[in-house]
C-alpha cells in the first residue's frame, strides 16, 4: 500500500520533466517568425520583397508583396522549411507591375523584329561623253536661194532680204545647218548704171542664219557685181581670192537670157557683168547665190 503511494508522485514528476524537455526543444512563435524574416531578407531572390511574418502555435502567416510569382513561392518555401513550423498561410500578393500572364503578354508584346536587309546601293551612273558644239569654219560656202528680186536700180543700200539655204552645211559627219534654214542678208550697195557713163553696182552680204529655231549672226565676204557704161564689163576682187562669194546662176545683166553664170576661181571674189545699152544688174527671185563665211560659227550640238 505504501509502495503505491510512492509511485504516483514519481510518475507525475516524470511527466512534468518530459513536458519541460519537449517545450525546450520546440522554438517559440516569436523565434520562428524572426528566423523566417531574417532568411527572407538574406536570400538574394527574396530580399527585395516586402513580406511580414507572424506565427501562432507554430502556424506561420505570410503577408505583404512579392515582385514575381517565383519570389512568392520562394518565401513560402523558406517558411515551410523553418523548424517548428506547423503550417503556412501564404497571403502574399504579387506586385501589379510584375510579369503579366502569358496569354496577356502574347496580346501586348509586339511581333519580333525581323532583320531588314538594306537595299544594295545602285551602281554609279555611267557618264556619257557630252556632245561637243559644232564649229562651222571660215571659208565654208553657203548656197542660198533669194526669196525676192534684187537689182542695182530697184534695191536700196541697207535693205534686208531673205533667202533659204539650198544645200545643207555639214561638219564631219554631222549636219550643222540643215537645208531650208532661213538666212537673212543685206544690200550693202545698190547703184543704178547711167546711160552713157557711170557704173551700175550691186553688193550683197549675209548677216544671220536661223538653225532649229535659234538665230545666229554670221559674217560673209561681200558678193558684188558691177556694170560700167558703154558695155564695158569689169570684175574686181573684194575680200581676196576664194574668201569672196560668187553668183551661181540666174543673174541677168540686162534682160532675160543674158545670164552671167558662175565665176569661181582663184581671184573670183567678185562677179562682174555688163551689156550694151542702159541695162541694170538684176537678180530674179529664187536665184541661187553662193557666199563664203569670213568668220567661223559655233553651234550647239544638234541634240540640244
Rg, Å, rounded:
62 Å
Describe the largest sheet: 8 strands, antiparallel
Termini Cα gap: 147 Å
Q: Write down the overall mean pLDDT.
A: 74
Give the topology string: H per helix, E per strand: HHEEHEEHEEEEEEEEEEEEEE
Count of individual beta strands: 18
The CATH architecture of the largest domain can be given as Beta Barrel
Q: Count of DSSP helices? A: 4
User: Which homologous superfamily in CATH is the superfamily of the largest domain?
Assistant: Type IV secretion system, VirB10/TraB/TrbI
Topology-level CATH name of the largest domain: Lipocalin
Helix vs. strand class = alpha+beta
Weakly predicted, low-confidence segments: 231-277
Name of the CATH class of the largest domain? Mainly Beta
- The coarse overall form would be rod-shaped
Description of the molecule:
The chain folds into 2 domains: 26-96, Histidine-containing Protein, Chain: A (2-Layer Sandwich), CATH 3.30.1340.30; 134-299, Lipocalin. It is 19% helix and 30% strand. The protein has helices at residues 2-25, 29-42, 69-81, 102-108, and strands at residues 50-56, 59-66, 87-90, 93-94, 134-136, 141-146, 150-151, 160-165, 169-171, 174-177, 182-191, 200-211, 214-217, 223-227, 246-249, 282-283, 288-292, 297-299. Strands 6, 8, 11, 12, 13, 14, 15 and 17 form an 8-stranded antiparallel β-sheet that branches. It is rod-shaped and about 165 Å long. The model is unreliable at 231-277 (pLDDT under 50).
Amino acid at each position: 500500500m505504501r509502495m503505491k503511494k510512492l509511485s504516483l508522485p514519481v510518475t507525475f514528476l516524470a511527466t512534468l520533466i518530459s513536458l519541460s524537455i519537449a517545450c525546450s526543444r520546440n522554438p517559440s512563435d516569436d523565434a520562428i517568425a524572426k528566423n523566417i524574416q531574417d532568411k527572407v531578407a538574406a536570400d538574394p531572390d527574396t530580399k527585395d520583397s516586402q513580406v511580414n511574418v507572424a506565427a501562432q502555435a507554430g502556424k506561420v502567416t505570410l503577408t505583404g508583396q512579392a515582385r514575381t510569382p517565383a519570389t512568392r513561392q520562394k518565401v513560402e518555401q523558406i517558411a515551410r522549411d523553418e523548424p517548428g513550423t506547423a503550417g503556412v498561410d501564404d497571403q502574399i500578393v504579387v506586385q501589379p507591375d510584375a510579369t503579366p500572364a502569358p496569354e496577356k503578354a502574347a496580346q501586348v508584346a509586339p511581333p519580333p523584329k525581323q532583320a531588314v536587309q538594306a537595299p544594295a546601293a545602285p551602281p554609279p551612273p555611267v557618264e556619257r561623253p557630252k556632245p561637243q558644239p559644232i564649229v562651222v569654219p571660215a571659208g565654208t560656202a553657203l548656197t542660198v536661194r533669194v526669196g525676192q528680186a534684187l537689182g542695182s536700180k530697184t534695191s536700196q543700200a541697207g535693205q534686208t532680204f531673205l533667202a533659204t539655204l539650198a544645200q545643207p552645211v555639214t561638219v564631219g559627219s554631222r549636219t550643222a545647218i540643215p537645208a531650208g534654214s532661213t538666212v537673212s542678208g543685206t544690200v550693202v550697195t545698190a547703184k543704178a548704171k547711167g546711160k552713157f557713163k557711170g557704173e551700175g553696182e550691186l553688193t550683197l552680204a549675209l548677216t544671220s542664219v536661223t538653225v532649229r529655231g535659234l538665230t545666229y549672226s554670221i559674217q560673209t565676204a561681200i558678193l558684188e557685181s558691177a556694170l560700167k557704161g558703154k558695155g564695158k564689163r569689169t570684175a574686181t576682187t573684194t575680200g581676196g581670192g576664194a574668201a569672196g562669194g560668187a553668183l551661181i546662176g540666174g543673174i541677168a545683166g540686162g534682160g532675160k537670157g543674158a545670164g552671167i553664170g558662175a565665176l569661181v576661181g582663184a581671184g573670183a571674189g567678185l562677179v562682174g557683168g555688163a551689156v550694151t545699152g542702159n541695162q541694170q544688174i538684176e537678180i530674179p527671185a529664187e536665184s541661187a547665190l553662193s557666199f563664203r563665211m569670213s568668220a567661223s560659227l559655233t553651234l550647239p550640238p544638234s541634240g540640244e
